[in-house]
Give the backbone structure.
Amino acid sequence: MSEQTPQTSVKYKINAVELLNLEMKHPSDSNIDFSAFHFDMKLQHRVNSEKKLVFVITNVTVLSQDKSTQIGSLQTSCIFQVDNFEDLMDSEKNVKFPDTFLDEINGMAISTTRGIMYSEFKGTFLHKAVLPVFKSENLRKSENK
C-alpha cells in the first residue's frame, strides 16, 4: 500500500470566465442526425505564480454521431485565484496542487463550459448538443500512463 501524504487545503475563488473560441460548421451532408452527438474534450492547466492564478482551459469538439464530421467547437477558460498559493510550493518553488482541488476546479470548468455551450448553441442546429454529466475524477491521469 502506498502512503498518503496529508494534502494542504486550498483557499481559492473564481476570478474570471472567458469564451476563447466558438465555431459552428453546418455540414453539407443532409443525412447528419442533429439529435445525437459525440464530444471530444480536453483540459489544460496553466499557472501564473506571480498573480496566484490557475487557468483551466476546456476545449470541446462536437462531432456527428458517427464521429466523422466536426460540426462545432468551443474553448473556454475558467480562472481561479489561489489565496494560499505559497503553501502549495516546495523549496524549489514548484507548485503541487492536491488532486481534490484539481477535481473541483475541473468539475467547475466543465460545468461552466456546459452552460456556455447551451447558451451559445441555443436556437441553432447544435441546440441539442449538451455535454453529458460525468465525474471529473475520471479525467485524472493514471500513474501508469
Observations:
- The first strand starts at residue 12 and ends at 24.
